[in-house]
Amino acid sequence: MTSNRATGERPRSVDRSTSSSTSPVVSVTIVNHESRDLLRRCLDSLREFPYTLGPMEIVVLDNASDDGSVEMLRADFPDVVVVAENVRRGYGANQNRAINASQGDVIFMLNPDAIVHDHTIDRLAASLRRDERVTIAGGPIANEDGSLRQDRLHRFPTPMSPYMSALGFERLHSRGPMRSAVTSHGWPSGAACLVERSAFDEVGGFDERFFMYSEDTDLFARLVAKDHLVAWVPDAIVTHPLPDESVDLAARREAEIVNAELQYMSEHFRGALVFRIGVAIESSVKLSVALLPGLSGLIRQHGKSLAHTQRVQRARLAAVVLRNRKPRLGDLADEWNRKNAQPSAPNAIAGSGHDTGEGHPTKRNLIVFDSSTT
C-alpha cells in the first residue's frame, strides 16, 4: 500500500548528553483542531507527568483552528514546538507532518482531549524492551470518571466482524481486563499510542487517503503484517473522555466511521460489500433489541441514553443502505480550504526553536526531566 507521507527534511540533531544511552528520545505528537481548552489540559498533564527516562519533546500541529489555539500555545507553552498549518487536512496527514517535524526515536501520538497520568509514558516506552520486534505499545483508555472504556487491545476488523457483533460474540471477547501481553493480534487506541519511528517509517506512515477514522487501524495492520509486535501495558492508563456532542453530531460521526471502515475493508480484504451487508444486519439487530423490555442495556453506549444509541445505530444503517450523500469531513475541509487557505508554507514556532522559512523547524533543545526529582 502506498501512502502520501509529508515531505521535507527532518531535523536530526538531538542532545542526548543528559540521558542514558539505552533510553530513547520520545516525541509527543498532537494534532489539534479547535480544541484549545482541552489541549491546554492535555499539555498540563504532560507537564505534570512527563517522560522521565530520557529527553522528551512535544510537537503540536494545529489544523488551521479558529479558536485561538496557536496564540494560547505561544503565550503559555513556549517549550512546545508548534506547526501552525493554514490548510485543513485529515488526521493521518497531519500526524505525518507532526512526526516529520519531530526528532525522537519513539513517537507518542496523543489526542488533544486526552490526559496522561503518572509514569504513563515511561511504562509504554519501557515495554518496547520486552522483545526486539515490539515497536508499538498502548494501554487502557479511561472515561472521565475513571472507569475503563477500553481494557484490552482492539481486534483487527474483518468483513465478518459485524456478523460476530450481531450474534453477540464481541461480548465474549470483552470479558475482563487484558493482562500484560506482547502480541500481533490486536491494536491499541489511536488516541494514545507509542510507535518506534523506524517502524513508522518502514511502512510509510499514515495512509493519507484515510481522512478521519480507521487510519490508525490501517497503520497498525500494516505494521503487524511486517512482523512488528504490539505491547499491551495495563498500568499505562490514559484518560480520553467521550466527546460531549449532540445526538445529531454523534450520528454524523458514526456515518464517517462506517465509511472509513468500508474504505479499510476495500484496502485490506476487497470485502466492502460483505462488510456493508454485515453492518446493515448488525444495526438492524441492535435496533430490534432496543425495543425488547429488559434487553436495551445490552446495546447502550457507556454514559449515553438509549435514544442516543438508537440514533447512532440508525446512522450506521443509513450509511450502508442509503449511502448518505451529505458532505463528508474531507469535503467540508476542502470547502474551507477553498475559502480560507493561504498558499504559504506552515509556520513552525517554538520557544526554543526557529522557523527556517520553509516550514521545517531547525535544531531545538529537547525538554529533559530528571526522574530523581520528578
State the helicity in percent bands.
Answer: 25-40%
Low-confidence stretches: 1-21, 350-374
Question: What is the CATH superfamily of the largest domain?
Answer: Spore Coat Polysaccharide Biosynthesis Protein SpsA, Chain A
Structural class: alpha/beta
Number of domains: 2
Output mean pLDDT: 82
User: Count the helices. How many?
Assistant: 12
- What fold name stands as the CATH topology of the largest domain? Spore Coat Polysaccharide Biosynthesis Protein SpsA, Chain A
Give the C-level CATH assignment of the largest domain: Alpha Beta
Q: State the total count of DSSP E strands.
A: 14
Radius of gyration: 21 Å
Report on this structure.
- There is one protein chain.
- By secondary structure, the protein is α/β, with parallel strands linked by helices.
- It has 2 domains: 26-241, Spore Coat Polysaccharide Biosynthesis Protein SpsA, Chain A, CATH 3.90.550.10; 247-336, no CATH class.
- Helices cover 36% and strands 15% of the residues.
- The chain has helices at 36-48, 69-76, 91-100, 120-127, 161-166, 169-173, 197-202, 215-225, 247-268, 272-289, 306-321, 329-340, and strands at 26-32, 55-62, 81-84, 106-110, 115-116, 134-138, 141-142, 148-150, 181-183, 192-196, 229-232, 238-239, 347-349, 367-368.
- Strands 1, 2, 3, 4, 6, 9, 10, 11, 13 and 14 form a 10-stranded mixed sheet that branches. A 4-stranded mixed sheet has the order 5-12-7-8.
- Helix 1 (36-48) links the parallel strand 1 (26-32) and strand 2.
- Helix 9 (247-268) runs antiparallel to helix 10 (272-289).
- The chain starts with 25 loop residues before the first strand and ends in a 6-residue tail after the last strand.
